[in-house]
Amino acid sequence: MSINQDPFDYDVFVSYPQALDKEGWVRKLQERVKLRLAEDALEAEVFMDKIDLSVGDRLEVILPKVRRSATFLAVLSRVYFDRPWCWKEIYEFMMTSDSANALFPVLRREIRHKEISCQIKHEHPDQIEAIQEVFDLIFKDTIYLAFFHHEDNEHIYYEPDDKKFISKSDKLADNIIRILQQKRRSKYVIGQIPNAHRESRGSSTQAHKNAGICVYLAQSCKSISKYREGVKEELTQNGYTVLPNDSTIHYYYESPQTEVEKLIQQDLQRCILSVHFIGDQDGTTPRDFECSVIELQYRIVKKHLDSSHKVLRFKQFVWIPPTVLIPKNKTPRDNFYQDIQNADHFLKISFDELKTDIQSELNSNRSNRLASESSISVCLISSFEDSEDYRSLCDQLFEWGYEVRGYDLEDHNEETDQRNQKYLEKFDKVIIFWGQEGQSWIDDKLRKVNAESSKTIIFIDLSSNSRQKSVFRTRKALVVKGEGINKFEQLRHHM
């Protein structure tokens, strides 16, 4: 029995492919996490199949254990998604967990999303939709820890004897402890779902309502970091996703400024609000950076706000504690202080008032989102070559209130055509994104879709222009063309 009372038997379920534990790496990670939990007076029950299962146990024996675990630790590599029982375990936890933040992915090896997707498409074609949901949660909506870093174009992987392995393991355990303690504070017995809550499992809890909603919390100087951590804790406790995640912040201080700018821009594409905590110190300026990370984040968010305010409901809050004095214009740092005072939402208010303003903005944003039950469903089809634009368009459609699913059309024959049609019938709209591929690609997709023209939209990205795109016409679908930073705005008018 775990430290948690029924219905949970385990505090942590460790999911991993056996190939990753040939030298005991996963076992040592599990032991380190368990030791850290014990140091916090939590004698946790950790389930790890190599330790707890006999050789002959089948998947149907494991899945009930997944459902009876409070948190889920997934040790990921490309091999993980080669093993059907691994991604079935993580999918089962996603579907049955009462907490949006109880999944803890760990990257043992670097994962290339496109490479895995291609592999799974061929090996498990009947499971693409389920696995896509796993991908989306791990790579878009969840904070994960990478047990490696890049150095001189090489991957440096952390082994159990390394100090970085120990520090990362302890951080992982601290995150698990935080989730368990949050449940305790919210009047749950740790790991136990009260009867009333179990009976209403079908209805959305507050955390589930907020799942997938992202807030960008910019870095702060050390003197006011406690305020950022306070906001972060309350947001994550209520189911929001806070960006940048810990692994991204780590790369801020190891990567060139141009790469960091890209990381910030990518995170902002998913967020509806940014909050900047300005204190009396500059914060860290990485080597070869033109300014501190704090100032860089502010300026990139400001550009994002200027370019996206007509399309997205996005806001930037800039907060300075009332006790911080704003200097006069004497140095470049002072110029930054003067600039932030011109922000649309410059706030020099108490911390409690800041939290109230943040919650009010999030509530207002939620009220403008369509409820999932009444949302128009969209199937989005694209090429792997356009994966970055595909993700941006998914995020954009979701912001507009649509329910979006991706789909890879199967090869053209009578049997697969029927499967394609049956799947596409479930959707109100089918959008084919035409980016870098040629004319033959779009002709093939139109033939496979074969849906009514009023339901199908071809969005042509003119950023990679060609004569074929500029003159393309068809009676099989509505054709919408766009280019530039606001290219998807044209699509919105035709949805």
Describe what this molecule looks like in 3D:
It is built from 20 helices and 17 strands. It is an alpha/beta fold. The protein has 3 domains: 10-178, Rossmann fold; 211-367, Toll/interleukin-1 receptor homology (TIR) domain (Rossmann fold), CATH 3.40.50.10140; 372-492, Response regulator (Rossmann fold). The strands form 4 sheets. Strands 2-1-3-4-5 form a 5-stranded parallel sheet, sandwiched between helices. Strand 8, helix 10 (225-237) and strand 9 (241-243) form a beta-alpha-beta unit. It is globular. Residues 185-205 and 370-374 have low confidence and may be disordered.
Strand order of the largest sheet: 2-1-3-4-5
CATH class of the largest domain: Alpha Beta
State the helix count: 20
General form: globular
- Which architecture of the largest domain does the CATH hierarchy give at level 2? 3-Layer(aba) Sandwich
Structural class: alpha/beta
| Total discrete domains | 3
Task: Give the beta-strand count.
Answer: 17
